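In full, the data:

***
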Amino acid sequence: MTVFQSSCAYCGVGCGLTITSHSTPLSSESPQLDGTPAAFTLKGDQSHPANLGKLCAKGERLLESLVQPNTLRYPRLASGKVVQWDEATQLIAQKFAETRQQFGPDSVALYLSGQLLTEDYYVANKFAKGYLKTANVDTNSRLCMSSAVSAMQRAFGEDVVPGCYEDLEQAEVIVLIGANTAWTHPVLFQRILAAKKLTNAQLVVIDPIKTATAKQADLHLAIHPGADLSLFTGLLGYLADNNKLNHSYIAAHTEGFDEVIQPAQHLSSNLAALAKHAGLNLELLLQFYDLFASSTKVVTASCQGVNQSIIGTDCTNAIINCHLALGQIGQVGSGFFSLTGQPNAMGAEKLVV
């Protein structure tokens, strides 16, 4: 019997897996790739910090995905012909060499995903930039995370997320914006619900649609699409108007605050108009603003609903600005958190993008 660790690549949580290879088949109901009974079992890794042993329905059935009739087990040409790995590798190398010789090194490219290991990205970079002599290597993480990355670079000087999953269990208020976490990050959402039950944390969901996540919220803000930037810019102004700013933190750790606060206070000077613009009633807007302003530990987590927007970077910065204004960055149970679409989007960003 051999036990080894792996991870699930289905979503951004990156749940740890413990896979056991048994010396003899366990069941005829779980066939291997060749149709014989499988000798593997799978469960969540209890020591993994992302999932602590828990798995969602997809993760629990990963082994079953290996034996689907349409699973591509061997390389296949465009004609449909199946070829051996050595033949496929040789053909790819030949095409790369011919294309580079005819059109130059920038005529080829590598396009990766956010589901690979960091070490895989390193090797791909070395192959592309060191051997092929081209900078044309990228991942699909750019499509889902570029606005969040740009915002964090603008706010912190580098692509860094100032928080971790454990902060969700310490927070007094958890704000989810542009994220249907119950569906897209199910294990993490169960962790949020467990923490909410344990600590009586308030869950705020900002989403135009009453999603499965919103149905679990203590406060659901069904804003108009695109109103998230105004919502958080107005929140910053509200914090200033009500003397909630952490002036010592702002003076010691930020710059350009005066330029940001003036337009924010312009919005907050007419909260009724802001509420109407956002598609909310004034009472609901004030309830959210008061909750955010009066809590010492707030985590705001965003996902693709914010990222996939022409104002995604500005919106993310507006969220971060509110946490900076309160000094809630790098503190336990508080701060901004970017929920990724793939488990190693950050590794892709660091080594490729």
Summary: Residues 85-103 form the longest helix (19 residues). The mean pLDDT is 91. The two ends are 40 Å apart (CA to CA).
